[in-house]
Design goal:
single chain; alpha/beta; TIM Barrel; 2 domains; 7-stranded mixed beta sheet; about 15% strand; binds cobalamin
Amino acid sequence: MLFAKHIIVGGAVLNRKSRGNNVKAHVALVNPPYPVEAPQAIFIPLGICYLAAVLEEKGYVVDVVDCQTSQPSQQQLQDKFASLNPDIIGVTSATLTYLPALDILKAAKKALPNALTMIGGPHVTVMDQQVFTESPDVDIVVRSEGEQTLLELAGLVSEGNLKGLSDVLGITFRRNEQVYRNSDRPFIIDIDKLPFPAHKHFDVSKYKIMGKTYLPIITSRGCPFQCTFCAGYRMCGRGFRGRSPSKVVDELEWLRDSFGAGIFAFYDDTFTFDANRAMAICDEMQKRKMDLPWDCRTRVDRVSKELLTKLHGTGCQLIHFGVESGSQQMLNLMRKGTTVEQNAQAIAWAKEAGISVAISLVIGYPTETPQMLQQTIDFIYKTKPDYVYMCEAVPYPGTELYEYTKKLGLELNTDWTQYHEQTQVFKNDLLPLSKLEETKKQFYDKYFSPTYYLKKRRQGDYYSQVMARMALNHLVNKYRFSRWAFKQVGKVRSPKVSPGGHSTPSKQQQG
Ligand code: B12
């Protein structure tokens, strides 16, 4: 048995003696909180659930600490880690949650200096080298898909063989103050082989929206499209890998029967990328009499009238289209690969099929003019989608947009806690923050009218009720704000309209 007594990884010494030989490593996985000022979109993090599931399948003991449904202080976190006493502490993170994730590893190292700390997710996959200059508390960055990588790392820790780190694909690590970047790990080819994500670590009763447990499922990984603002391809690559329809519906049944799911969100980047596969999933759902409502996300050029009718027939009540802009010039610049006409056509088809339509828009993109933004507003009034998410353009590291803003010499705000798409993170003279906020406020004030509220209330289906609730929240906030503003003397700042993350109801919108 290999037994490395004291191997220094980063600042820490991993002393395996305390566990003894052949004891499988104990892993704690942590979901970091959102920065306080960001919209609090609380959803089960599938990444952590998949990581926990593959570890448990191989007999590792896993604990999950969720800092989104409860927000522990640094001291409480330290106490938690000390009481769990794991060998590995891993945290997930997007750009928005990167700094809170580093705080978690700080608490981890304080409580357990000998534990091996690691971080994964879209931000660090791209900014892996920087992590080591920004935090003394990280031993390993896991890049891209993490299931196989974490299994290998847990194996090495169990053996006390941290010398083997050099052979683990897809990691960047620090050893004796040096940072090493291993080669990329190829993507998992057959994602059907992955176990179902381990939701059991989360209190699913906390993921209720208007009385129904809302659970996510991912049926594919990878996206071949080139959208300049998206970092998804860095995580899952450009090759589409779909799960088989029968496995997908097995998971849906399991979510319903074991966790009381009353409604599903298909979180795939492009659920209908392969129309035949999407049809086959619907057939399987019909065969097994799955009659729960669901929503999905897709592209306008990946739907047809026939497909939309089929989706509706199996419970799809809401479809999210990444419309992005009403200006063809902007769509071209974003390399969206769609036209304004396709956007309008898909919205009309979905509505004809009886599916509500939510569209997401990217506003304030570099070089966008107020006239182009107006084209987007005009597009909304012309096509009348049921819900609109206006997201401010955010150049996430690893995206073409990130390089583009740099090329244009636009000054980037690197306070990552602002990367939630409801504020501007680069200086844009054509569409400054004040103009964007004013446009958004005016738009939502008009859009969420009492008529909208009543219409959605009358529509009766689940998602229309959620939209009615969102509109009501907006109307109440607007009324409160007008009263407050009336009482103020001097300049007042408009309240943030917060329709949630990308296609995401924010916490305040959940009931
Ligand atoms: C579904 C989804 C959501 C869902 C659920 C997110 C969640 N917490 O699970 C919702 C709608 C809530 C959401 C919200 C947001 N999202 Co989102 N989302 C996605 C999407 C489409 C899929 C993510 C997913 O579930 N993948 C499947 C799981 C299995 O993969 P994973 O989470 O990446 O985890 C794997 C690896 O990253 C790695 N890993 C991750 N963590 C760790 C930790 C350790 C220790 C290890 C070893 C490995 C590891 O292993 C995991 C298993 O393979 C991606 C696009 C994409 N294709 O990646 C965007 C994406 C992740 N989202 C993005 C963004 C911007 C957001 C928001 C900020 C948007 C907003 N306006 O609010 C919020 C913030 C979310 C957060 N918690 O920080 C960006 C992130 C870019 C960035 N650099 O931050 C992406 C990449 C899309 C894009 N525009 O580029 N999102």
